[in-house]
Amino acid sequence: MTRPARYRCRPLVAFLLAFGLAVLGCAKAEPTDDALSPVASALEALGRAHRLADAAKTDAERQSALQALDEGVRALPKESAGPSAVWVVQDALARSAELELALGHADRAISRAEQGLRLGTESSVPVASLHTLKGRALEARGEIEQAVAAYHAALVVNQQLMERALAPGASTQSP
Amino acid sequence: MSVTDDESLLEPTDLELAEAEALARALEDGAAPSALPEDALATARVVQLHRKASPDGTFELSEEARQRILQRVVQGLAEHEPSGAKAKAEPEQESFWSWLKRLLGSYPGLVVAGGGAFAAAAVIGLFIVGRTEQSNVAATASVPGVGAFAWTTAAPPVPSVKLLQAQAAWIASASEHAEFERDMREYRQEVYVALREP
Question: Is the ipTM of this complex over 0.90?
Fold first, then answer.
């Protein structure tokens, strides 16, 4: 029995489809340089944002610096991020809290400081800065006792870092 | 050669004749064996009817008719085999592999289409895995500017004592911010550079 031509073509179509998918899959799976640059580009953006914050003299410039910092943090890849990544984000949030405080936004400054502290409280320079800026904002709101507690927390972290830095054999890597 | 060409083949044996007569009598008595073949039963019924139709009740048939009827009875008996033999004659159950061979032989396109579908599924799986690894690599791999090791596992460099002293002074007094800010700028740059080294 002879089958119609359209049925005889089906195996060929199936084979060509599988072959095309194989070629497409291999082409897409190959890593490219463009796909490997998010961390580098995000760090570049954050560096520029910090420079904007350094140079900010007016409220508008501070707002621009704030926006640039937020964009830099958002651009950071979150996958497989280690302690260095946490350091970078907490540093950016401390800088943002500082700008909010300069803008007179104590509530926002506290919010950003607490946001940074929620990422981790392992002793580091940014963590001490976050406690300090939270204390400044609380002080601006008249909440002196809570501000003193925040300053105390900042000094504890600073003291721990100092002890590590002065310890014999302290390397270039912190724990 | 037809069966009727050879008269010797049509001639029943004495045993067969006796069986046929016994069958006819059994039918007349209403005690026909249930296991008899249909042909034999039908033929026996014909014999029975002929017997009843004869005027004197005797069973009279022409020699030709008798031979023909008996031939049918004998053939029917011969074809009636025991149940074991009948079961043996039934077609054997088809095995899975013979069924599969017959199916694939009838539809060779199924082989290619099935293989193609399997290959496509494998490619799609590899594609997804590749994309996932690519995403992780984007965050972690050693690339121009950022090293995977630094981003995933390394801790930032130890801050200098000078920086920590400036920070302690700033914590105690907001007016001491300038020196800390300057030292922090240098330290931040140091951390970023460390992140860029593979």
Answer: no
